[in-house]
């Protein structure tokens, strides 16, 4: 693949300057330094999700040791971090990798068409100065998964009768004054459980906040700070400490998710036990926190240091599980007949799913109909040449997957360079059975499932939910296989022979240091996992290891990190990996 250097003709055009786009830029810089690329960002600022959402208390659900990039240690003491810190981290990544000058802000992509004869994408963008056209060999869509323009709000009867203020968290008014007001938050997702403690604390605290939900969500407490991570950093330094914490968290996340799926009843019971302990005596846990579905059929919400439970305990907030009959001038009337008074109603009713930034695409003049395509290795679409997309995990930190996708993407580019290919197209077996690309039952996914690409039934075509599987497939596995079809519009006679035809295929090695994680399908118990969690040797710990706050660490679902901290004065044994069923899930899924 010859490099393109003409202005506005690039090797790679990245769309979106969020976690995915900035990450892709950094991987290109490091692994393919000769490639020309630019990042088109529709908004006036970078950061994507972390710049768009401005509601009080906005924070991650994931720990930043896995939500951060593999190549850049997360240095803050908070493992579950505020949006502003995440935004700072992302922008620092862009600056450190000289990406700032490559980001074209206010460039909203409105169309992309592929021409096989030229082996080029033509990409149209709207800018304040008018339309601009870019041409690029590859498009990397780091456009996230939801519609930026509008969140999802169902039709509420009587909405227009309400005399107070209605707000959607995706469009939080900067000047919204809720001090001393009565607030109802409709919804029970990550945003609702974040908003409630945030809106009831500080000088601008609301008088009272009610979380009104139709169906409960699994909610579990996790510590904001990870004491083990801090100890590892002190002991092994920034880089190594980060790597070790990351490995620990990947392992724990992997196991807790798998075991929750395998032992749903036990997981439910453990979550319930922790909630009963955290909430006021006699609290109706079964009505408000015991969902009708199994753990991880839908998201599991994390509340740092149990802040939501503490707020409910304080009486500043409550949870109501009921159905809305109608909005009224003063609030909401429920199916049960109860009336909730409100000055402000927050509709935390979700996102509108939208892949590829809603960009219409054509291949040689034919429109790409996403439901007719199948996702290959989580990165490409069948039948669509030279298009990479970046969709992270829904059952673990998004960025873990984005990093692996970017690694594979850059390996593919280098492979194509080696053999002078300029086009690659993934072709699915037409007889392969397919199903929706996401199996997740969350409402926002189900609402749009018919507009999404599909997944198949073979490894390369399946939506992977496991980091270990993806390390095998994307980092350590062969770049090519029988599903990839390489061609060259302008063959380079000096290029190497086609490796797929060679007796001994030449492989392009992975660049990144492989992270080994135990294969969860082969180990029965995390305590016997083949790849133990690395811990500092307690005899060599330079500084005392901080022991988690005993008030939050007593219960596994509220423990600072679901791994016990060794007492440096006594510990000789390695860090205990929590019992499979006793661990709250520390991972995040998109709202
Ligand atoms: C409130 C909230 C909290 C979350 N917390 C977590 C968490 O703790 N852990 C986790 O793993 N995940 C979380 N998620 C999911 C989260 O969105 C992802 O983890 C991550 O931020 C996505 O990064 P991204 O770069 O892929 O997409 P985004 O952050 O959505 O960025 C996409 C970028 O593409 C740009 N773009 C889109 N379309 C176009 C176009 N047509 N032209 C030009 N530019 C375009 C957008 O403007 C945006 O800047 C959360 C999501 C939300 C909404």
TrEMBL record:
Keyword field: FAD, Flavoprotein, Monooxygenase, NADP, Oxidoreductase
Biased amino acid composition, Low complexity: 515-530, 548-591
Cofactor field: FAD
MF terms (GO), sorted A to Z: flavin adenine dinucleotide binding; N,N-dimethylaniline monooxygenase activity; NADP binding
A Pfam family hit: NAD_binding_8
UniProt keyword Transmembrane present: no
Record protein name field: Cation diffusion facilitator CzcD-associated flavoprotein CzcO
Assigned protein family: Belongs to the FAD-binding monooxygenase family.
Highest taxon of source: Bacteria
Region feature Disordered, mapped onto this chain: 515-591
């Amino acid at each position: 693949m010859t490099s393109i250097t003409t202005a506005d003709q690039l090797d790679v055009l990245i769309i979106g300057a969020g976690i995915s786009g900035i990450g892709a830029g950094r991987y290109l810089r490091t692994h393919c330094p000769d490639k020309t690329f630019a990042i088109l960002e529709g908004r006036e600022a970078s950061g994507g999700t972390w710049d768009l959402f401005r509601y009080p208390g906005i924070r991650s659900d994931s720990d930043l040791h896995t939500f951060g990039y593999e190549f850049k240690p997360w240095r803050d003491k908070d493992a579950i971090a505020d949006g502003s810190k995440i935004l700072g981290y992302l922008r620092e990544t862009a600056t450190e990798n000289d990406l700032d000058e490559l980001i074209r802000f206010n460039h909203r992509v409105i169309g992309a068409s592929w021409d096989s004869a030229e082996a080029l994408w033509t990409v149209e963008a709207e800018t304040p100065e008018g339309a601009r056209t870019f041409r690029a060999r590859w498009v990397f869509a780091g456009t996230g998964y939801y519609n930026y323009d509008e969140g999802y709000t169902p039709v509420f009867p009587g909405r227009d009768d309400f005399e107070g203020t209605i707000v959607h968290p995706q469009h939080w008014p900067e000047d919204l004054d809720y001090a001393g007001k009565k607030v109802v938050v409709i919804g029970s997702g990550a945003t609702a459980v974040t908003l409630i403690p945030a809106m009831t604390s500080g000088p601008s605290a609301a008088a009272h906040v009610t979380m009104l939900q139709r169906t409960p969500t699994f909610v579990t407490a996790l510590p904001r700070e990870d004491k083990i991570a801090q100890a590892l950093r002190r002991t092994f330094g920034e880089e190594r400490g980060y790597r070790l914490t990351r490995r620990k968290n990947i392992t724990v996340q992997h196991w807790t998710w798998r075991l929750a799926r395998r032992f749903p009843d036990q997981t439910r019971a453990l979550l319930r036990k922790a909630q009963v302990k955290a909430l006021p005596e006699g609290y109706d846990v079964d009505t408000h926190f015991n969902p009708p579905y199994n753990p991880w059929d839908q998201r599991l919400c994390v509340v740092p240091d149990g802040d939501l439970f503490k707020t409910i305990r304080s009486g500043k907030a409550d949870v109501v599980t009921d159905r809305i009959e109608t909005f009224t001038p003063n609030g909401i009337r429920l199916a049960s007949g109860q009336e909730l008074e409100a000055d402000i109603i927050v509709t935390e009713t979700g996102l509108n799913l939208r892949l590829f930034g809603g960009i219409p695409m054509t291949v040689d003049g034919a429109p790409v109909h996403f439901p007719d395509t199948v996702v290959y290795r989580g990165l490409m679409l069948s039948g669509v040449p030279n298009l990479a997309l970046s969709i992270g995990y829904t059952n673990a930190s998004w960025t873990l997957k984005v990093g692996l996708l970017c690694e594979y993407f850059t390996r593919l580019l280098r492979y194509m360079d080696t053999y002078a290919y300029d086009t690659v197209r993934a072709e699915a077996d037409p007889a392969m059975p397919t199903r929706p690309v996401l199996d997740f039952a969350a409402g926002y996914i189900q609402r749009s499932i018919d507009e999404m690409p599909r997944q198949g039934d073979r490894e390369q075509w399946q939506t992977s939910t496991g980091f270990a599987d993806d390390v095998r497939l994307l980092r350590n596995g062969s770049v090519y296989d029988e599903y990839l079809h390489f061609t060259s519009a302008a063959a380079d006679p000096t290029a190497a022979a086609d490796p797929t035809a060679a007796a001994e295929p030449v492989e392009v090695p992975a660049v990144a240091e492989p992270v080994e994680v135990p294969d969860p399908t082969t180990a029965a118990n995390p305590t016997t996992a083949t790849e133990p969690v690395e811990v500092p040797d307690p005899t060599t710990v330079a500084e005392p290891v901080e022991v988690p706050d005993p008030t939050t660490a007593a219960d596994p679902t509220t423990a600072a990190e679901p791994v016990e901290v060794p007492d440096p004065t006594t510990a000789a044994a390695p860090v205990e990996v929590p019992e499979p069923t006793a661990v709250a899930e520390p991972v995040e899924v998109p709202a």
